[in-house]
Specification:
Blueprint (H helix, E strand, L loop, with lengths): L1 E6 L13 H10 L6 H21 L3 H11 L2 E6 L12 H13 L7 E2 L3 E2 L5 H11 L3 H21 L10 H15 L4 H14 L14 H21 L15 H5 L6 E6 L24 H14 L5 E8 L1 H7 L15 H4 L3 H11 L10 H4 L2 H7 L2 E5 L1 H7 L11 E7 L4 E6 L14 H12 L5 H12 L40
Parallel strand pairs: 6-7
Antiparallel strand pairs: 1-5, 3-4, 6-8, 8-9
Helix pairs in contact: 1-7, 1-8, 2-4, 2-18, 3-4, 4-5, 4-9, 5-6, 5-7, 5-9, 6-7, 7-8, 7-9, 8-9, 11-14, 14-16
Keywords: Lyase
Family: Belongs to the PrpD family.
Protein name: 2-methylcitrate dehydratase
């Protein structure tokens, strides 16, 4: 790996293209280095993981809305949409939109945390949609996804967005564009322009994850994937993009990040160096914000030590800056303590999550978020006894460069009414690669079977798993098999109508 310094350049200065971050990203994407077997296996795991969480979300309103929008754009050859049959194809950018929302809705797929946050499997829907539409093979898809993961993970290592209230999809747009460029074997010049165009169109604020969090939290990554496809299509036609996107005098660093004097350091593979970044990412065992994964496991462990939960006087979670200020009491969001809050908001309240995990000894992607569960009097009482505080040591461990020293958990101090104190700590979720029970292929399959049970027919479950696990050998015509077809009654009762549903005579169906 080589670390590249990235800063603002005045327009009067000359910054050669080959010295620009977008060009360096494009060179990595265009490098035809072989994908290692371990990386290919992990890509298969994440495709299975995405399908699992998508299956569990198919009947939810935001997913139904995105699917309805996509189905209004039929196209041939096109790409498939989760829930529909493989012969129902739509334009690839709309397939990426619908599938991206389905994958993201439950906040239950993979994660990478460093200088910023990310869910790198958000790259899979747009890259897969383009691969299906353009008639490429499973091996081509693996190459594209390895590149997309590599770019997003390394942008997340080097550039902090949340400090400036920029949403993390600003790293996803460029990575998806780069991955599509790799998939299509595009030249460096084309990928360079597409990466910049994707950055320019996917820079949004973090209000999507603040206050009253709406369904846009699930839509935002899908939007980035859709924009990435459109960016690549546009530059393939010979159009350019704002340049230099990161380093320009009026560009990303100068006015949206730390300003003209700031210098960022982004690591990227050298020429012919394998793309292995996916191996540093991790998935979720529980359907909740990643910083809550270890704390859910810790709550289950502590419950037996505490005994009578009604005897609790207070609970203080000593944790990292991010956990405290984004999903803890440091956020200052009263919605995080509100029993009537949306699922998206409860997912970003470690106080709520820890209370439910203590009481139930488990976490469920539906039951743990139901309005009835959130309004249970004992839960509300316990919930409001919980606070968070930033501990510099946990913040340091959160930002550690050595993956063996990184930590995303915390130390919990429970004070009982009789004065006794029960405390414990956990650095990593059990399912983390360095945790107590690292996720392996059987765990991904188990997660898929559990989340798709009752939604996807058993024969369809097995068919999908066979196709996914044969990814490296899949011929172009077989890529459509990376889809899940379900009976219409599993798609929910939501049939949202919008502009795209108007017919030629001006009436909705």
């Amino acid at each position: 790996m080589r670390t590249h310094s990235v800063r603002t350049w005045k327009s009067a200065e000359h910054l050669p293209r080959e010295d620009q971050l977008a060009w360096k990203i494009a060179r990595v994407a265009a490098d035809p280095v072989a994908v290692e077997a371990e990386v290919a296996d992990m890509i298969i795991n994440r495709i299975i993981d995405n399908a699992a969480v998508a299956a569990a979300s198919l009947a939810r309103r935001p997913v139904a809305s995105a699917r309805s929008q996509a189905m209004a754009h039929p196209f041939s050859p096109g790409a498939t949409v989760f829930g529909m049959t493989t012969d129902q194809r739509v334009s690839p950018e709309w397939a990426a939109w619908a599938n991206g929302v389905a994958v993201r809705e439950l906040d239950f797929h993979d994660t990478f945390l460093a200088a910023d946050y990310s869910h790198p499997a958000d790259n899979i829907p747009p890259v897969l949609a383009v691969a299906q539409h353009t008639g490429l093979s499973g091996a081509d898809l693996i190459r594209g996804l390895a590149a997309a993961y590599e770019i997003q993970v390394n942008l997340v290592r080097g550039i902090c967005l949340h400090q400036h209230k920029i949403d993390h999809i600003a790293h996803l747009g460029p990575s998806a564009a780069a991955g599509i460029g790799t998939l299509l074997n595009l030249p460096v010049e084309t990928i360079y322009q597409a990466v910049q165009q994707a950055l320019h169109t996917t820079t949004t604020t973090r209000q999507s994850r603040k206050g009253e969090i709406s369904s846009w939290k699930a839509y935002a990554p899908a939007f980035a994937g859709k924009m990435a496809i459109e960016a690549v299509d546009r530059v393939m036609r010979g159009e350019g993009a704002p340049s230099p996107a990161w380093e320009g005098e009026d560009g990303f660093i100068a006015y949206l990040l730390s300003g003209p004097s700031a210098v960022y350091h982004v690591p990227l593979p050298e020429h012919s160096e394998p793309k292995r970044a996916i191996l540093d990412t991790y998935t979720k065992e529980h359907s909740a914000e990643y910083q809550s994964q270890a704390l859910i496991d810790l709550a289950r462990r502590m419950a037996t030590k505490i005994g009578d939960l009604a005897a609790i006087e207070s609970i203080v979670i000593h944790t990292s800056h991010h956990t405290h200020y984004v999903i803890g009491t440091g956020a200052g969001d009263p919605q995080k303590m509100d029993p009537k809050a949306s699922r998206e908001t409860l997912d970003h309240s470690i106080m709520y999550i820890f209370a439910v995990a203590l009481e139930d000894g488990r976490w469920h992607h539906v039951d743990s978020y139901s309005p009835e569960r959130a309004s249970r009097p004992s839960t509300v009482a316990l919930w409001h006894k919980i606070s968070t505080t930033e501990d510099p040591e946990w913040t340091r461990r959160y930002h550690a460069h050595d993956p063996n020293k990184k930590a995303f958990g915390g130390r919990v101090v429970v004070t009982l009414r009789d004065g006794r104190v029960v405390e414990d700590e956990l650095a990593l979720a059990d399912a983390h690669p360095n945790g107590a029970r690292p996720f392996k292929r059987p765990d991904y399959i188990r997660k898929f079977m559990e989340l798709s049970e009752g939604v996807v027919a058993p024969t369809e479950q097995q068919r999908f798993l066979e196709v996914a696990q044969s990814l490296q050998e899949l011929k172009p015509e077989a890529l459509v098999g990376l889809n899940l077809s379900v009976n219409p009654d599993q798609l929910g009762s939501h049939r949202p109508m919008g502009i795209f549903d108007f017919t030629s005579n001006g009436r909705t169906p």
